[in-house]
Amino acid sequence: MKLKGRTALVTGGSRGIGRAIALALAQEGADVAVNYVSSEGAAKEVGEEIRKMGRVSILAQADVGDYPDTFRMAQDVMKEFGHLDILVNNAGINSDKTFVKMDHASWRKVLAINLDGVFNCTKVFIDQMLKQEYGRVVNITSVIGQIGNFGQANYAASKAGVAAFTKSLAKELAGKGITVNAVAPGFIETEMVQGIPDKVRDRLLSQIPLKRFGTAAEVGRAVVYIVSSDGDYITGAELSINGGLLM
Ligand SMILES: NC(=O)c1ccc[n+]([C@@H]2O[C@H](COP(=O)([O-])OP(=O)(O)OC[C@H]3O[C@@H](n4cnc5c(N)ncnc54)[C@H](OP(=O)(O)O)[C@@H]3O)[C@@H](O)[C@H]2O)c1
């Protein structure tokens, strides 16, 4: 097991990609705190699956877009785990509309959760990682942040912001035992993409060389690679998992 003795927090660990990341980390031996904002039942189920693997799992409810709430969550996690080795900033939302129809509230909401959320969660754990001279931070970005998308100006801007944040922080923290990386999924089968109309899905599939959407488990395994000792020499990277959509 590659992560035995490590502790991790996965934001948005209750569903989709975050759930798969939480399970993949636990599979490799990590104890995992599962963050969620409202899906308590789903988060509890993830926790039960992790405990069945013989790991410790705790629930870590918080709205990552809210700094005081995130700070409170970090205190709870530190009380339970004593220290945090791995932070996966995965929580994210979309609120798609063409720019002309996009209102300020929709812009703010997506930026608050997707971009401010990454700042908030990283901020509340970084001093402790510096103190222990070890940390692995992985931010989940998106191919949309790399290429833009019709109707997703808010989402694309938030993810491009996270990618730039990742590289800046990687430079600041290199040499202090902390690596900071991003994983940029393409289209992955989760609730987030379930609303895509069949016509659009077919068009997307025609643009993806591997001719399918990815699975959440495939993203989970990539995160394990980065945060295990296999990934010790990787920092400031944005690993694409997109079936060849962008190359
Ligand atoms: N699916 C894709 O094709 C795709 C592609 C590229 C990137 N991504 C990125 O991958 C990440 C996960 O996406 P997904 O498809 O797995 O999404 P999802 O199935 O909609 O799950 C979203 C997760 O984020 C949590 N969340 C939402 N708002 C939150 C908040 N304010 N505070 C804390 N947690 C919050 C949700 O918690 P609750 O369950 O409590 O609501 C849920 O666990 C996102 O950052 C997304 O942008 C997804």
Task: Work out the number of β strands.
Answer: 7
Q: How many helices in DSSP terms?
A: 9
Order of helices and strands: EHEHEHEHEHHEHHHE
Helix-and-strand structural type: alpha/beta
Which percent range describes the beta-strand content?
A: 5-15%
Second rung of CATH, namely the architecture:
3-Layer(aba) Sandwich
Count of domains: 1
Bound molecules: NADP nicotinamide-adenine-dinucleotide phosphate
Please explain how this structure is put together.
The protein is α/β, with parallel strands linked by helices and 247 residues long. The longest helix has 29 residues, at 104-132. The model has no long low-confidence stretch (mean pLDDT 98). Helices cover 49% and strands 15% of the residues. The chain has nine helices and seven strands, in the order E-H-E-H-E-H-E-H-E-H-H-E-H-H-H-E. The two termini are 33 Å apart. Helix 1 (16-27) runs parallel beside helix 2 (40-52), helix 1 (16-27) packs across helix 9 (216-227) and helix 4 (104-132) runs parallel beside helix 6. The protein has a seven-stranded parallel beta sheet with strand order 3-2-1-4-5-6-7, sandwiched between helices. It is globular. The chain has one domain: NAD(P)-binding Rossmann-like Domain (Rossmann fold, 3-Layer(aba) Sandwich), CATH 3.40.50.720. Residues 11-12, 14-18, 35-39, 42, 63-65, 90-93, 113, 140, 142, 185, 187-188, 190-193 line the site of NADP nicotinamide-adenine-dinucleotide phosphate.
